[in-house]
Design goal:
The protein is mainly α. It contains 19 helices and two strands. Strands 1-2 form a two-stranded antiparallel ribbon.
């Protein structure tokens, strides 16, 4: 679908591999040095790739295309981060495992209305406060699984890859119509697993903590005027022309929210810009360095996937790459591959004949985005907020080994067996 692709030298995928390796290992091996120098690493490796495309391939159009995708991504994520940071939910009491499951289910529904970024940023702080006497890594990771990823599978607003699909012509209600059974299955399995894990954690807590957690929850909401700015951002999603009007409206809504929100609300939320700053810097490097990898996939999709790949190929292909790449451009690459392998000449023809494969791409991009910290933008922001609250979060490899493989993978396999195996 992208007419600006020129075959890159496969060696140019190396900067992307180096950046992923640095993100995975540097916080574990040299945490202090990584915190100080991660912008230099991300921007430096990104500059290598951009220089190659500008001065060797002489393909500025490709760079501008990716720059536009990045700007749209970061404006949506950043504006939702700022506005949701102006809404404070006060919680008194402590949550039982059953209350936690209900909270995560509500978060999964809200992810489709506020986006995974908006829902995650709105709910992560009250989630931590609800569990403050026994909050552990599993509370943060399952929040990432359900609220920051899997929950947002029903609308284009829910997750960036589905938003990009909407911009390519996929009707707004198509995802909900075709993917709701996968959403129910995925969210249901994860909530059941979480309940077992959280129940065991609850039973190990001291009696005093368990008595606190039987207290009735009381809720108080502050900063609800920001719901207006959220509505503005969500309305801007539907604006396609002129170029950058949508992003300008989102930026204006974020600025309006920030300057009109009471200082006490930001202080209560411990609001600061470090999480979105880290995401913006790391993802500018990711978006830049992954251009050769995505171009290679676009040019070789038919040879790699075969002439008539099954839905499971699209599900696992999109999913596995979404775990290591950002899931939004990965979705676009496999959408392009689906056009190439199917021979469809337009989005209507594709939807008529390839609905199951497109559903596999959509679900794979959203669900597998939970597999690593870099699979989806909100993952890093949730981790940054949890780290700021002095919660022990898993390292990049620890996230995969301790949580993705034993807890997320069974759900992913169940979705494949039920819906995409044929």
């Amino acid at each position: 679908m992208n007419e600006n692709i020129i075959a890159p030298n496969p060696w140019m995928i190396l900067p992307f591999g180096l950046l992923l390796g640095a993100i995975a290992l540097a916080p574990l091996l040299v945490p202090g040095g990584w915190r100080r120098h991660y912008p230099k690493v991300a921007l430096g490796l990104g500059a290598v790739t951009l220089g190659y495309y500008l001065f060797v391939l002489r393909n500025p159009d490709r760079v501008l295309h990716v720059a536009h995708d990045y700007l749209s991504f970061i404006m949506l994520v950043g504006s939702l981060f700022v506005v949701s940071g102006g809404i404070h939910i006060r919680v008194k009491g402590e949550a039982t495992p059953r209350a936690n499951v209900l909270f995560l289910l509500i978060g999964a529904v809200l992810a489709n209305l506020l986006g995974t970024t908006g829902a995650a940023m709105l709910l992560i702080r009250p989630w931590i406060r609800m569990n403050r006497y026994r909050v552990t890594a599993h509370h943060i990771v399952f929040f990432i699984f359900i609220v920051a990823n899997v929950g947002g599978c029903l609308t284009p607003i829910g997750d960036p890859p589905l938003f990009l699909g909407y911009l390519q012509g996929v009707p707004f209600g198509w995802v909900a119509e075709h993917c709701w059974p996968m959403w129910v299955t995925g969210v249901g399995i994860l909530l059941a697993i979480f309940y077992v894990v959280d129940r065991l954690n609850f039973l190990r807590a001291p009696r005093a903590v368990r008595q606190l957690e039987t207290a009735q929850e009381t809720w108080k909401f502050e900063g609800l005027a920001n719901l207006f700015f959220l509505a503005v951002i969500l309305g801007a999603v539907f604006i396609n022309r002129p170029v950058f009007l949508r992003e300008g409206i989102m930026l204006a809504a974020a600025a309006g929210s920030f300057f009109t929100t009471a200082k006490s609300v930001h202080e209560a939320n411990r609001f600061h810009f470090h999480p979105i700053q880290e995401v913006a810097v790391l993802f500018v490097g990711i978006f830049a360095t992954m251009i050769p990898a995505l171009d290679w996939l676009d040019l070789n999709a038919r040879a790699v996937l075969g002439a008539h790949p099954a839905a499971g190929v699209f599900y696992f292909g999109t999913g596995l790459l979404s775990s290591g790449l950002d899931n939004a451009p990965t979705y676009l690459s496999f959408l392009s591959a689906l056009f190439g392998t199917s021979g469809a000449r337009g989005i209507e023809e594709l939807l008529a004949g390839q609905a199951l494969n497109l559903a596999a791409i959509s679900v794979g991009a959203v669900f597998f985005g939970a597999a690593t910290y870099i699979g989806n933008g909100p993952n890093f922001m949730v981790k940054a907020i949890a780290d700021h609250e002095k919660i022990r979060t898993p390292t990049f490899p620890g996230f995969i080994v301790k949580f993705t493989l034993p807890f997320l993978l069974p759900m992913l396999l169940a979705v494949w067996l039920i819906f995409f195996r044929g």
